[in-house]
Design goal:
With 156 residues, the chain is an alpha+beta fold. The chain has 2 domains: 7-75, 2-Layer Sandwich (Alpha-Beta Plaits); 88-145, Alpha-Beta Plaits, CATH 3.30.70. Helices cover 17% and strands 19% of the residues. Strand 2 and strand 3 (49-51) form a beta hairpin. The chain is globular and about 40 Å long.
Length: 156
């Protein structure tokens, strides 16, 4: 049995319906699925790659083959991730994906540790500064900030 590394793959795309309209998200090519020897990645109903954190051993093969360069290897302990790579302004982002960051800044205003900022129309999180309070996820109206541990941030 392969040893799990202290990292896990994260696909920076929430993959709403019609993700093929977003030029910066997952294109559903399946290269990551084919590269994963542990079958930890599958394409969801919208054709977007999804990683099973429990099955992922953190080898990074998927990240190396991703044509869009949207798979990151992050520490397993990293609780919150921004699942979007789209840099288009709000209205344009909204038209190409129902799950895109629209750069509204609600997450940035809610963050008490100054760990998340909207840069080039996209929320970017500084994991070194993040205290995992979940306020960014609770305030995100688009559901782009994902809680990897499944703890409901909306209850905050």
């Amino acid at each position: 049995m392969a040893r799990k590394l202290d990292r896990v793959a994260v696909v920076r795309c929430a993959g709403g319906p019609a993700p093929d309209r977003c030029s910066e998200g997952c294109i559903g090519c399946g290269a990551c699925v084919a590269a994963c020897r542990k079958h930890a990645i599958e394409l969801n109903e919208n054709g977007v790659a999804h990683v099973d954190r429990d099955a992922c051993i953190g080898c990074g093969l998927c990240a190396r083959v991703c044509e869009q360069h949207i798979i990151d290897m992050v520490p397993r302990s990293q609780r919150f991730q921004v699942l979007c790579s789209n840099h288009e302004p709000g209205a344009a982002a909204r038209t190409v994906c129902q799950s895109s960051c629209i750069a509204c800044g609600a997450c940035e205003r809610a963050c008490t540790s100054d760990a998340i900022h909207v840069t080039q129309n996209l929320a970017v999180m500084d994991q070194e500064t993040c205290i995992s309070c979940g306020m960014c996820a609770a305030k995100c109206t688009r559901g782009v900030i994902h809680d990897a541990f499944g703890i409901v941030a909306k209850s905050l």
